[in-house]
Amino acid sequence: MTLLRSVSILLLCAGVAACEGAAKNNHHVGGGGGEPEPPTPSDTLRPAPAKFSCDASTVPTELPLPRLSRKQLMNSLRFAIERALPDEAEAIWTKLTSILARYPTDQRTPAPGDVKGGFSRLDQSIQQTQVDVMYDLGTAVAQELTRTDARRDALLGSCASDSQTSNDRACLETFLRGWGSRVLRHPLSTAEVTTFADIAGATPVDRAAIADVITTLLNSPAFLYRLEHGTTAGEPVSPLSAFELAAKLSYQFWQAPPDDALWASASDGSLLTERGFETQLDRLLQSPELRGSLDEFVSEWLRLDELPSLVALRNDPVYRAFVGAQLPTDATRAAMFDDVQRSAWSTLVSGGSVSDFLNDRRSYTADPFLAGIYGVPVWDGEGPAPIIPSQNRSGLLTRAALLATGTASTRPIHKGYLVRNALLCQQVGAPPPNASDRPPAPTESMTTRQVVTQLTSGGSCGGCHNNSINPPGFVLEGFDALGRERGVERLFNPQGQETAAPSVDTSADVWLYDSEQRDISNAVELSRMVDESQLFESCVAQHYFRFAHARVESTSRDGCLLSELESVARSGAPMADLLKTLARHPTFQQRSFP
How many other C-beta atoms are found inside a 10 Å radius of the C-beta of residue 214? Predict the structure, then answer.
């Protein structure tokens, strides 16, 4: 296949209406007139050309006012309570449960042109519900912190309850300079302290007055947003202040306000030195606190939450017959997610590369059902995780979280789309308006592959499905809808009686880019193609940019950072270097203004 032919296939498919697919699960990409010509056999794929290039004359367009994500906001509230009353923080937090549940969940926002995927951080919308609930939260926290004289005294010190009234205003202002500065993530100026203290009026240490001050502070823009003014007023690009940089680092990697060590480095200015910055960056990336951020990135990038419940169909005869005597539980579904997340974490902390994550064949589960699928003992989290013995398991592509469907059907269209869009960053188009909302399922006499082929191989659908979507999904048919290995596909009638067990066909002609195309027949060969093309590494860099910046990239304006991230990901360097490259880049340590 020539380069011109490859490009024409993608362009043609962009305007082709697909004939079958689930609006939520099946998507269409690639394809054109006829079947592509097979390339000359080669042992190794050529790495794809780099996706990004740097134009140093461009200036990135940044979010004008980054809103804290729901998780970051909740962590910030906990931080505020713990700094105020550390011994009572857990009890106070528990009392807030019902209000916390009302705060809207951030919605994952796909990139333009994508139907699925995206990161919840990209949801920068502001709803009236958020405003209302945050006011209720601020009020509830303030009331709890000042519920008794003892709590008030713990906040403000003995000056709040002594016999003198002349020091009451100073007592409140001292509290604001300490607790208030940490909660708002910058040293409060004299004007800011005065503004907040004035809210208390003539009774600065009255419990109700202090509660009003705290409510106002917790609803101020400096708490709800990550404000960045820079240090050079009037300039189009300005370095961040030490405290702005501390907050950016902490929310990026820990999703929480700066801790004492990071705050101290901002206070003494050492964070703005190369040595001081590297010291804090290394500390942040070596801390277990990093895992929450990494888990969120991996889960949303790989769309793990798209896996439905594994118990919803427990009363369906076909599903029960397919699963067997032991049914999975909701805990198994959670364990499947954790298995992927722990693989990423293990890769990062052990110095592994992006490629190592793709090819990691260890099991990280303590769930007996999932361990049984992998053929390994449960892992207690101590010592090396067990290696999955089957040579048919290639790593990420064959983890149960990416294979299970919550049904008795494997859904190869969904998996092919996931490979194309999430792992290779090859954009796909939306299904047509008349697309079925039910994924194709096997019948009593036809395998999943046969049904999918029959529905999607003809007419305008054929180009997209035959060339791009179906092949990766068909290669993964060597695993059933729970992620178990199989050589045959058991077919059932509606009563759950087995009607046939034909052999599974996992062969496919898989095209990745340009003329790089191979006839393969198993997941190991598919993983090798994905890895050798280095499209996976480029894709990880692109997704991490979006996660970190809470926006979709501009390939022209953001090309310099993207090209550096891509180079690191492709180089085989430790995965942690990808995170360091982001933080070290000038665009992370400065603010551009339109």
Answer: 27
Per-residue pLDDT tens digits for 525-568: 999 999 999 999 999 999 999 999 999 999 999 999 999 999 99
* pLDDT tens column, 186-203: 999 999 999 999 999 999
Q: Which two tokens stand for residue 109?
A: 């926002």
Phi, psi of 128 (to 5 degrees): -60, -35
Q: How far is CA 569 from CA 75, 112, 180, 556, 565, in A?
A: 30, 24, 40, 20, 6
Q: Which amino acid is at 195?
A: T
SS3 170: helix
Of residues 124 and 113, which shows the higher confidence score? 124
Can you give the pTM of this predicted structure? 0.91
Name the maximum alpha-carbon separation found in the chain: 92
Q: How far apart are CA 336 and CA 78, in angstroms?
A: 29
Distance, in Å, from the CA atom of 240 to the CA atom of 245, rounded to the nearest integer, reads: 6
Helix (H, G, I), strand (E, B) or coil at 347: helix
Whose tokens are 């070290």? That residue is 584
User: Of 507, 509, 452, 526, which is closest to residue 25 (Cα–Cα)?
Assistant: 452
Residue 125 CB partners (closer than 8 Å, separation 6+): 107
84-92 contacts, C-beta under 8 A, 24 or more apart: 84/145, 84/154, 84/155, 84/179, 85/145, 85/151, 85/154, 85/155, 88/151, 92/141, 92/144, 92/145
Strand 491-492 relative to strand 590-592, pairing: unpaired
- Cα separation, 507 vs 243, in Å, equals 56
Q: At what angle do helices 260-267 and 242-253 cross, to 10 degrees?
A: 160
User: What would the pLDDT profile of 44-89 be if each residue is shown by its tens digit?
Assistant: 899 999 999 999 999 888 888 999 999 999 999 999 999 999 999 9
DSSP state of 272: G
Neighbours of 96 (CB within 10 A): 18
Degrees, nearest 5: CA angle 504-510-514: 180
What residues does 485 pair with on adjacent strands?
479
Tell me the CA distances in angstroms from 314 to 328, 332, 374, 406, 496, one per residue in order: 9, 14, 22, 10, 12
Sequence-distant contacts of 438-443: CB under 8 A, at least 24 apart: 438/22, 439/22, 439/25, 439/26, 439/407, 439/409, 439/411, 439/413, 439/414, 440/20, 440/409, 440/411, 440/413, 441/407, 441/408, 441/409, 442/408, 442/409, 442/489, 442/491, 443/491
